[in-house]
Amino acid sequence: MTLTAATAMSIAAVGALLTAAPAEAAGSVHLTKIYYDSPGKDTGSNASLNAEYVQIKNTTSKAASLKGWVLVDASSHKYTFGAFSLGAGKTVTVRTGKGSNTTGTKYQNRKWYVWNNTKDKATLKKASGAVADTCAYNNGSVDYTAC
């Protein structure tokens, strides 16, 4: 059996399609860390509240608009992003307390803690309501979890 040049090229093209990188290799916007038990006693001071945070990373090669995205815990405490673009390869830290928002840090402006010290679940939802990522922990012996 002899292959024509056109047939050989078609087979090579199909082979290249079959070996293409999976879609997830393109990256995503996902939860990377929850620091749920701030150091010291839970006094409710702003410094203590801000030591409790969630980190979200954009592992794509393009900036991602997080406008309308929601970060929520198991008790339905919600933080909704306003107009905000997370740069390619960048991380944003969402702190519980009060402060001035920057491109790298957002503040929920709460007066009490969100993340339970022993067990909770963070869910990151897109503006459409679709779940982008979740991260749960069930361990009171450490102060944070990597997602």
From TrEMBL:
<dbReference type="InterPro" id="IPR036415">
    <property type="entry name" value="Lamin_tail_dom_sf"/>
</dbReference>
<dbReference type="Pfam" id="PF00932">
    <property type="entry name" value="LTD"/>
</dbReference>
<feature type="signal peptide">
    <location>
        <begin position="1"/>
        <end position="25"/>
    </location>
</feature>
<keyword id="KW-0732">Signal</keyword>
<dbReference type="InterPro" id="IPR001322">
    <property type="entry name" value="Lamin_tail_dom"/>
</dbReference>
<feature type="domain" description="LTD">
    <location>
        <begin position="17"/>
        <end position="146"/>
    </location>
</feature>
<protein>
    <submittedName>
        <fullName>Lamin tail domain-containing protein</fullName>
    </submittedName>
</protein>
